[in-house]
From TrEMBL:
It comes from the Eukaryota. It comes from Marssonina brunnea f. sp. multigermtubi (strain MB_m1). This is Uncharacterized protein. Residues 1-12, 35-71 have a biased composition (Polar residues). Residues 1-73, 157-203 are annotated as: Disordered. Residues 157-181, 190-203 have a biased composition (Basic and acidic residues).
Length: 203
């Protein structure tokens, strides 16, 4: 950005020996040097060797006016005024540009910091959401696995009980049959001995 220096209500004041030049303007005071109180000249006139001469002024277009006389001192002072105006304008523009660059850097830093903060916050929220979703899915999976394990254990228990019951019934049946067969065999043996005992002669 280019800054055009067009001061309003401005004037140049020359010291009594042409050695000091001060610029008075409505521009921001922080960009302008303080006038030296020891070399203040009159705003309307100055006296050189007892004669009243017209002071060269700086109009609002940024150019020093042409001196009214051909006095080399007046010409030199007018040229010095033009040089001082150029130097002051360049200084003001340079400082203003540095301020603008500093503001731009600060704004960029703030924007970058805000962007990074938002990214971190978004990542944190996404991570928490993912962790919550994973926790819920893990809990559901564990519930399903627990239910399947309980059903499997119940089935195995019922099958074992049924098998044991069947084995017990078969064993009891076999034992019952074996006991009945033994009892029957004993009864038959007893009955087969009784006739011999009846026909045996007495002694």
């Amino acid at each position: 950005m280019h800054l055009s220096i067009k001061p309003t209500n401005s004037e140049w004041s020359l010291g009594p020996h042409g050695a000091d030049v001060s610029f008075i303007s409505k521009s921001p005071a922080k960009y302008l040097p303080s006038p030296d109180s020891t070399h203040q000249a009159s705003k309307s006139q100055r006296y050189n060797h007892g004669q009243k001469q017209q002071q060269p002024t700086l109009p609002c277009n940024g150019r020093a006016s042409t001196p009214t006389s051909n006095d080399p001192l007046d010409i030199e002072k007018a040229a010095a005024s033009r040089r001082m105006e150029i130097i002051l304008a360049e200084s003001i523009e340079k400082i203003w540009q540095q301020d603008q660059d500093s503001v731009a850097r600060v704004n960029q830093g703030r924007a970058r910091a805000m962007c990074e903060t938002q990214n971190l916050a978004s990542e944190s929220v996404a991570k928490l959401n993912n962790q919550g979703f994973e926790t819920m899915e893990r809990a559901k999976r564990e519930d399903r696995e627990s239910e399947a394990r309980v059903l499997r254990l119940n089935g195995e228990s019922k099958a074992r009980i049924a098998r044991e019951n069947g084995e017990s019934k078969a064993r009891i049946s076999n034992e019952t049959k074996e006991s009945a067969a033994r009892i029957e065999a004993i009864q038959e043996a007893s009955e087969s001995r009784r006739p011999h005992e009846k026909t045996k002669p007495d002694s």
